[in-house]
Design brief:
Blueprint (H helix, E strand, L loop, with lengths): L1 E5 L3 H9 L8 E5 L5 H4 L5 E3 L7 H18 L3 E6 L3 H10 L3 E5 L10 H9 L2 E4 L12 E2 L5
Parallel strand pairs: 1-2, 1-4, 2-3, 4-5, 5-6, 6-7
Length: about 150
């Protein structure tokens, strides 16, 4: 089972694009609810959790929602294109032995995101879409732009 987690909007669009080739392995998406998202994930298994957006209380809610979903689904791999919504799920996954794949947002060309600064340290594989990020994330693999 593969968990693909990201914030809604551009991060989710990148996650969908990055994981579009995964056809014969069970996967599910995790994001936060915005009205257009159910259409974007039509036909895909998906779940909604709290978007913490820098709120310690919302991070706590997100953590428990992520833990409940993780225990129920037991993903072997967690793939994320970021933002903060993904941090608790990735930390939980790492604790329980899941492989973590972090893809830095294509919007980040020169400097890494806050999420990258956290997840790069625990990720089994980090991918950047722009070469200048290799200066800050030297173990990351350059994968080129998703769009």
């Amino acid at each position: 089972m593969i968990c693909i987690i990201s914030s809604a909007g551009g991060h989710l669009a990148e996650a969908i694009k990055a994981c579009s080739a995964i056809k014969h392995y069970p996967k599910f998406y995790v994001t936060f609810f915005v009205p257009h998202i159910p259409d974007s994930l039509s036909g895909e298994e998906h779940y909604f959790i709290e978007d913490p957006h820098l709120s310690p209380l919302k991070y706590l809610v997100n953590f428990f929602q992520s833990l409940k979903l993780y225990v129920r689904k037991r993903p072997k791999v967690i793939i994320t294109t970021g933002a903060g919504i993904a941090v608790p799920m990735c930390l939980i996954g790492k604790f329980f032995g899941s492989k973590i794949v972090f893809i830095e947002s294509g919007a980040r060309v020169i400097y890494p995101s806050r999420t990258a600064k956290v997840l790069y340290r625990i990720a089994d594989l980090s991918i950047v879409q722009w070469r200048p990020l290799s200066n800050y994330l030297p173990k990351a693999i350059y994968g080129g732009p998703l769009f």
